[in-house]
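Quick illustration, no need to memorize.
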Amino acid sequence: MPTEIERWDPFREMMSLRNRIDHLFGLATLYDEPALDMYETDGKIKVDMPLPGVKPEEVELTITGNTLTIKGERKVKEEVKKENYYRHEMHYGAFTRTVTLPETVDVAKPEATFENGVVTVSFPKLKTVEPKRIEIKAIEPKALEVG
């Protein structure tokens, strides 16, 4: 698999660090993002995102350029008083996850499925174009006229 170069985004790194620190201290944030996997199969690039408790009609997928955005909302099943909890780790509320796709995908032909609480978006890979060698023609320099 070819190595991809990803543009450095300092804000993404700060949010990732904040999420790790919050997770370490057991804090929920507005920045909680569902995890996802992006991988290559025979002729396709796939993105899997587990969304337990979310219905397919509550998920919005959009693509702008080579950026895939997945939006949705985890809704609370029933209201439980805070003092009745022994442990509260589930995060509810709106979420948005954006991922940059490799340049080698055909973003015009996405397919999406939702099975067992996992949304899968797949994109066909573009056919690779071999570089064409350009021949250089040497041109003889013209003699300067002295006059």
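The beta strands are 37-41, 44-50, 60-64, 67-74, 93-100, 111-115, 118-124.
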